[in-house]
Write a structure and sequence with these properties.
mainly alpha, hpI Integrase, Chain A, globular
Length: about 230
C-alpha cells in the first residue's frame, strides 16, 4: 500500500481497490483475514455529476425521435445502462405509468443484488414510449438494428453530444442516472423512496446525491441582508 502511494502516486480510491484485489486473492488461497489489520487510507467521495438544464436542452435538440425516447428513459428512470439495454415491452405498464427492472435468466441478466423493482415515471415518458416504434420479432424496447440487445448506447450518446457541439467527454450514461437521483431528491421526494427507485442497497449511497444545487446565483442575488445593501 505504501509502495502504491509513494512510488506510483496513486490516489486513495485506487489504492483501496488494489488492496481489495489482493485480499480477494489471498482469501481464495485460504489466507483470509490477512488484510484486516491494515489501516486503509480514507476513501475520496467525489460529488455526483449532473447535467445542467442547458446541456440537456442542447443534447435533446440534437436527438432524433428514437434517440430522444432512449435518453429520456435513462434520464427519467435513473436506470443503469444494462437495465435499459434489457428493458422489454413487458416491463412497461402504460396503465400504471410504471417501468420495471426484471430478471432475464435466458439472457444471463439479473438486477443488481437480484432485486427486481418497479419505478413510477412521468407521464411525459409514458407518452414517448407509447409512440416509440416496435421492431418485429424483438422484445426489447431499444433493440439493435438486428433486434438484439443494443450494446452501443454510449457511442450514440457521444455522437449526439458532438452533433450538439457539446463535449463528448462530458457525456456518459452514468451521468443521466446521477442527474435523476439528484433532481428527485431536490424535488422533495424522501431518501427512502429514491433509494428504492435507484435500486441502492444502502441509504448512505442514496444520500450522496443530496448535493447542493448549482444554479443558485440568481436566487442568491435576490437575498437582501439588512445593513449591507449600500455597502457594495
Amino acid at each position: 500500500m505504501v509502495h502504491l502511494k509513494k512510488k506510483h502516486q496513486l490516489d486513495n480510491n485506487t489504492v483501496i481497490h488494489n488492496i481489495i484485489i489482493v485480499a480477494q486473492f489471498l482469501k481464495k488461497q485460504g489466507r483470509a483475514g490477512l488484510t484486516r489489520s491494515i489501516d486503509l487510507p480514507e476513501a475520496i467521495r467525489s460529488l455526483p455529476e449532473e447535467y445542467s438544464d442547458q446541456d440537456l436542452q442542447a443534447f435533446f435538440a440534437a436527438c432524433t425521435k428514437d434517440e430522444q425516447t432512449l435518453f429520456m428513459t435513462l434520464l427519467l428512470t435513473g436506470f443503469r445502462e444494462q437495465e435499459v439495454v434489457h428493458l422489454s415491452w413487458n416491463d412497461i405498464s402504460f396503465n400504471l405509468n410504471t417501468v420495471r427492472v426484471t430478471a432475464k435468466p435466458d439472457l444471463g441478466f439479473s438486477p443488481k443484488r437480484w432485486e427486481e423493482r418497479e419505478v413510477p415515471v412521468q407521464k411525459q415518458l409514458i407518452e414517448l414510449l407509447k409512440i416509440h416504434p416496435r421492431k418485429d420479432g424483438s422484445r426489447f424496447v431499444f433493440p439493435s438494428p438486428r433486434g438484439n440487445r443494443e450494446l452501443h448506447m454510449l457511442d450514440k450518446c457521444k455522437a449526439i453530444a458532438e452533433r450538439a457541439k457539446l463535449s463528448p467527454a462530458h457525456f456518459h450514461l452514468r451521468r443521466f442516472r446521477s442527474t435523476y437521483a439528484t433532481r428527485m431528491l431536490r424535488s422533495g421526494f424522501d431518501v427512502r423512496t429514491v433509494q428504492h427507485w435507484m435500486g441502492h442497497k444502502s441509504l448512505e449511497t442514496t444520500m450522496r446525491y443530496l448535493s447542493p444545487a448549482k444554479d443558485v446565483h440568481e436566487r442568491l442575488d435576490k437575498v437582501q441582508i439588512a445593513g449591507l445593501l449600500g455597502a457594495v
